[in-house]
Amino acid sequence: MQHLDLQVLETALAWTNAGDTVWLCSVLATFGSSPREPGSMLVAKADGSHVGSLSGGCIEEDFLGRIAEGEFAESLTVVRYGEGADESPQVSLPCGGILDVLVERLTPDAETLTHLEVLHATLLGQRSLVRHIDLGSGRKRFVEAGENGPRVERDGDIIRLRVGPALRLIIAGISPVSQFCAEFARALGFEVIVCDPREEARRGFDLEGVEIQSVLPSLFIGSGAVHAATAIVALTHDPRLDDLAMIEAVRTPAFYIGVMGSLRTSEKRAERLKRSGGLDDDAIARIHMPIGLNLDSKTPAEIALAVVADVLRVRRGRARDAL
Predict the structure, then answer these.
(1) Strand 256-259's sheet: what is its strand order?
(2) Which pairs with CB-CB distance under 8 Å and at least 24 residues apart come from 178-183?
(3) Which domains are assigned to the chain?
(4) Maximum pairwise Cα distance, the chain
(5) How confident is the model at residue 206, as a pLDDT?
(6) What pLDDT does 87 receive?
(7) pTM of the entire structure?
């Protein structure tokens, strides 16, 4: 299954190339409970066609109706949805939350096409950029970005939207924890790839939207499949899979690398990786072992939850003691 941001951008490009004006919308902020996070996108046309989501269905109908009525004619508009919105439609989200949404009206010209093509290439590429948007002047530009941090920042009229390679999770080896980890990650919008050469392990592992590679995880990781928005987790307790995956993983720009095991098992693994894998202290320090947040997890589902939560923590640039 293609990452939703890619679907939005590819649709926006196709419609613009066909000569259509499009409205590209981005969630700027959420207050209270909200089904979509800052940075989530939707693209729409005047006829009501759309791809993506701002609220999981709570406000899309109202928004599309307002486009059809001729609203959002300005090139940039910020609109608030939800309870307590004084300057925007009184549409209550069932979850009781509030959304601030940036609406960009994009006409089908060369400037729009260039901007969308840069966005699309960034999602498919190896580095992150920040879209720097000035609501006052209407100016838009791209600036270099660090790999981790908030997807959206706002300072008065200046909005900064982080865009980068679509989040990818590579799971080294199939286990009960792998199953739940893949399910959680897909629900969070990750592209998920599971690697395992064992036919007996792959048998019965079939999750919609999850790619399965029947090769050693280390071979897939070393093939160039890892970019800076990739997390790599090893979840089998089998050193023949896990150790080799870690040796290859530390040679990549992955933002998160982790392997499952107790504290004692992790200490023994670190010794093996130094002795047999030739990894130095800096390489070892990149590996989260034991993997995941310390939630006193016992079941496969709880362990998977701790793993995915820790991946998100690192991606958001949050320290453990800030949780």
Answers:
(1) 210-213, 191-195, 168-172, 230-234, 256-259, 287-288
(2) 178/205, 178/235, 178/236, 178/304, 179/205, 179/207, 179/300, 179/304, 180/300, 180/301, 180/303, 180/304, 180/305, 181/233, 181/235, 181/304, 181/307, 181/308, 182/207, 182/210, 183/207, 183/304
(3) 4-163 (no CATH), 168-322 (3.40.50.720)
(4) 68
(5) 83
(6) 42
(7) 0.69
Tens digit of each residue's pLDDT (9 = 90 or more) over 62-106: 889 999 999 999 999 999 887 654 444 445 555 567 888 999 999
- Condensed to tens digits (0 to 9), the pLDDT of residues 204-246 reads 888 888 999 999 999 999 998 898 889 999 999 898 899 999 9
Sign of torsion over alpha carbons 256, 261, 266, 270: negative
Q: Which of 144, 147, 129, 131 is nearest to 229 (CA)?
A: 147
